[in-house]
Design goal:
This protein is mostly helical and 66 residues long. The chain has 2 helices and no strands. The protein is 67% helix and 0% strand.
Length: 66
């Protein structure tokens, strides 16, 4: 049995909320730069997913348009 199965599931957005509450004053310059790079990568991933969903919505609207 995997021990992850015993852990409660995180709710959506919980990780983002925890990230936003972190004390940034404890991070060094290099760590802050790495964090920015990671967040920019995540933003690109989210934008890609958003475009896919918008494309699917547009296709569905075109299909069912009266």
């Amino acid at each position: 049995m995997d021990t992850d199965d015993l852990e409660p599931r995180r709710r959506r957005g919980e990780a983002l909320q925890a990230l936003a509450r972190e004390d940034l004053s404890l991070l060094g310059i290099e760590e802050l730069g790495e964090r920015i790079a990671a967040l920019e990568t995540e933003i690109m991933r989210i934008r890609d997913q958003l475009q896919k969903k918008q494309g699917s919505l547009s296709a569905a609207e075109a299909l069912f348009k009266k």
